[in-house]
Design a protein that fits this description.
Elements (H helix, E strand, L loop, with lengths): L1 H4 L5 H8 L4 H10 L5 E2 L5 E2 L13 H6 L6 H6 L4
Antiparallel strand pairs: 1-2
């Protein structure tokens, strides 16, 4: 079972990632930030790591396809008074 643990973030890593200590608050943060996770029977979140040790994003392919530039058409349509 110890080999399995290395594939998931430790409680300390999870606290460092979220800045939160309570499990329910961590789960809300993970959902809001699109981080793949599941909730154990005891209510604690488990976050899988990728091969580099980073948390896996549930929407990685969506966020990678987004245009990183602002929508200039909207910015041009706003007039300053």
């Amino acid at each position: 079972m110890s080999a399995d643990i290395s594939h998931y973030m430790t409680p300390l890593e999870l606290k460092d990632l979220t800045g939160l200590t309570q499990s329910a608050a961590q789960i809300r943060w993970l959902k809001a930030n699109g981080i793949e996770h599941f909730v154990r029977v005891d209510g604690k979140p488990r976050v899988p790591k990728d091969e580099k040790g980073h948390p896996i994003r549930a929407n990685a392919e969506i966020s990678a396809s987004r245009d990183p530039e602002p929508n200039f058409a909207i910015l041009r349509s706003v007039r300053l008074s």
